[in-house]
Design a protein that fits this description.
Blueprint (H helix, E strand, L loop, with lengths): L5 H25 L4 H16 L5 E7 L5 E5 L5 H7 L23 E4 L5 H6 L5 E2 L5 H5 L6 H13 L17 H7 L3 E2 L1
Parallel strand pairs: 1-3, 4-5
Antiparallel strand pairs: 1-2
């Protein structure tokens, strides 16, 4: 093998460094390694959403460390959303929410604040979230009794959540007249 001159070695070294720099830049831009990468990732996420992505976007609120809107993979459960929001805040009413329920796109997961779980069931001031409501909370809504409340929970668990109030029309025992009443007391 012929020996390389100094100038040839220098040229090869410059080419190698250029290839390494270009490769590193390409890897960084395709990931989330920089602010530009994060913007690229967000834009790609928006494009996936427009194409019917399998991700779900949920709003986690109440007694969690970082309440916010989060994107999670399809098939995620309420426990995944709570974990993504930093976990439960001190004293959160952990048993007042079904951690095993599947998430649906657009769902709001509300972890009750300390001491509010019993009051929420009897003195709900706003619409109840179908995605996180307990049987007791649903039972307090006009037009829903304990049996229908249990059927709604079972339907929600079997279908991976509820993304619309209109889906309640598929629950046995809820007809058009009841649907009109429920619209004011529930939210997806």
């Amino acid at each position: 093998m012929p020996e390389l001159s100094r100038s040839q070695l220098l040229v090869y070294a410059v080419i190698a460094v250029a290839v390494i720099l270009i490769g590193a830049r390409w890897i960084r831009s395709s990931g989330n390694g920089s602010a530009g990468g994060a913007e690229l990732s967000f834009a790609a996420g928006s494009a996936r959403e427009a194409e019917g992505s399998q991700d779900v976007v949920v709003h986690v609120a109440g007694a969690v460390q970082r309440p916010d809107v989060y994107r999670l993979p399809a098939g995620s459960r309420v426990t995944d959303a709570v974990r993504r929001a930093g976990g439960f805040a001190r004293g959160a009413s952990r048993d007042a929410i079904n951690l095993a329920a599947r998430l649906s796109d657009g769902q709001q997961v509300v972890v009750p604040e300390p001491g509010t779980a019993p009051a929420a069931a009897g003195g709900q001031t706003g619409p109840i979230s179908l995605g996180s409501a307990t049987v007791e909370q649903l039972d307090q809504v006009e037009g829903i009794g304990p049996v229908t409340a249990q059927k709604i929970i079972e339907f929600r668990d079997q279908h991976g959540g509820l993304s619309s109030i209109n889906q309640l029309d598929e629950v046995d025992g809820i007809g058009p007249a009841t649907m009109q009443t429920l619209r004011s007391g529930l939210q997806p």
